[in-house]
Amino acid sequence: MVKPTNTLKGKTGVLGLPIVLYTLFFGLSGCRQDYSLSPPADSEKITVTVKLPKELKTETMWVMYRSATCKRIGSGASGQRTERDGYHSVYKQLERQGQSDLYQVELPKDGGGACRWHLANVTFGVVYADPSRYGESVIDGGGGGVVVIFDYNNSPHGGADIKVDGNLTIKEDYYPWVKEAFLGGYRKRISLAGKGGYYLMYQALQARHVYFEPILHSDFIVYSEQPKEKKEGNHTTFTYPDGSVVADGQSKPDFWKLQSLRTGRARECLSVWQYQKCPDRRPQLLPEWQPSSEKPGFGYYIIVDEWGNELPVYDYRLVGANGQIFRERTTADGHTQPLPNSAHPLREVEFPVQSW
């Protein structure tokens, strides 16, 4: 799951800050070093792919390389000399693959050059291709941004909320969010409301393929109207697709309310951490037997909710092929406890009422 990210979006789109600020180097060690990128011909590539809904377009990707060789020199609070890894930014457009809805870019992992650059992080995302469909004066308000970090440094937007092993696949639901603001001048924007903030933040140290599929539910629009007067007790008003109006002091729509309205399922059913409270639970045990790399002769299964999310700390009862009974709870990543190979294939699978 993705935690809400508080990074604010700037006026230049998903990049958040004017591009020119990040194309300049200052305070790097030395005066005449060559800071250019020069990827080796055999550099390993990282591929980023976006599956694009028809109402959206991809934003320019901000690619940051870092160098431990070419340092940035600065001053600390007491005037002392400080050194940090240097950085170099480039900007890429994702290219459409034939006539498909896939857009892609390949990035060299090794940036080469005298500074021995390495790929540090990428910032990319999707926005509305035509905001004016929601009104003549409507402008883009952001929302579907993604940051992927490939090293141990923070990105310009902060650190990762989720760390993954191997390649990264992101499939997220989004809803149109039309918001009006009055204080400081009238503004009307169309944003993408998701379960995170403006950016989904990942660290993927081993990833060589990043796949992002934003799923846009265009028929479920949420509207918000900020107060016209700055006064205690005045809050932004949200109007949801079912006509309900909420002004509870929140600054963004209730994503789980939107999910519940669209699916017709109780909101507890949509959260892996609250799934045990779901009034109509539909957990599943995936049929694939996974041999354990840490415990020879053992393996495990994965238990997921009806949406395909791994269920952490979830009760199960399994009857193995040899009749042995296993009643345990899943691990934090939805795995069963290690089972002997003799338990596979299973005879029975049950999910007792949670004992919470």
| Biggest sheet statistics | 10 strands, mixed
The percent range for strand residues is 35-45%
Query: What is the 3D shape?
Result: globular
Query: Roughly how many Å apart are the termini?
Result: 22 Å
List SSEs in N-to-C order. HEEEEEEEEEEEEEEEEEEHEEEEEEEE
Q: Show unreliable segments.
A: 1-31
Class of secondary structure makeup = mainly beta
Number of domains: 2
Binned, the helix content reads: under 10%
Record field, number of beta strands: 26
Mean pLDDT: 89
Rg over alpha carbons: 24 Å
The count of helical stretches stands at 2
What does it look like?
This protein is 4% helix and 39% strand. It has two domains: 19-264, no CATH class; 284-350, no CATH class. Mean pLDDT is 89; it is low at 1-31. The longest helix is centred in the last third of the chain and has 9 residues, at 255-263. It is globular and about 65 Å long. The strands form five sheets. Strands 1, 5, 6, 9, 12, 13, 15, 16, 17 and 18 form a ten-stranded mixed β-sheet that branches. Strands 2, 3, 4, 7, 8, 10, 11 and 14 form an eight-stranded mixed β-sheet that branches. The chain has a three-stranded antiparallel β-sheet with strand order 20-21-25, with no helix packed on it. Strand 7 and strand 8 form a beta hairpin. The chain has 356 residues and is mainly β.
